[in-house]
Amino acid sequence: MNLNFKKWIEDNKKNLYEKNIIVKNIVTSGEKSNDPSTRADFFSAKYLGCVTVWKSGSIDIEKISTVFFDSGMLNIGTNFYSFLEGFFNKLLSK
């Protein structure tokens, strides 16, 4: 089932993009296990979703809301902690 999911993503990537859903990070893992999986990340303007499908047909679906967004430019010598401090504070807030 996981390979069917991977093919579905490949076949529908453009259609999803036209609906403002971007598919990234398609990863198939555990090919040598009894139940390998395929995972994909789906991005929209407000949410990140992750879907994992296993060969057995099990599926996990997650939706994560964007509660913080920032961007900037890093330079050589940038103090990563200082740059990311606001982000870390949001991760720790309730």
Structure at a glance:
This protein is an alpha+beta fold.
Could you characterize what this model shows?
Strand 2 and strand 3 (47-54) form a beta hairpin. This protein has two helices and four strands, in the order αββββα. It is 32% helix and 32% strand. The radius of gyration is 17 Å and the shape is elongated. It is α+β, with helices and mostly antiparallel strands. Strands 1-2-3-4 form a four-stranded antiparallel beta sheet, covered by helices on one side. The longest helix has 17 residues, at 2-18.
Compile the SSE list and pairings.
Blueprint: H1 2-18, E1 22-29, E2 37-43, E3 47-54, E4 59-65, H2 80-92
Antiparallel strand pairs: 1-2, 2-3, 3-4
Descriptors for this entry?
94 residues; alpha+beta; 4-stranded antiparallel sheet; 2 helices; 4 strands; 32% helix; 32% strand; elongated
Helix proportion of residues, in percent?
Answer: 25-40%
Mean pLDDT: 83
Shape: elongated
Order of helices and strands: HEEEEH
Helix count?
Answer: 2
The fraction of residues assigned to DSSP E strands is: 25-35%
Radius of gyration: 17 Å
User: Which segments are poorly predicted (pLDDT under 50) over 5 or more consecutive residues?
Assistant: none
Main sheet strand line-up: 1-2-3-4
Helix-and-strand structural type: alpha+beta
* Tally of DSSP β-strands: 4
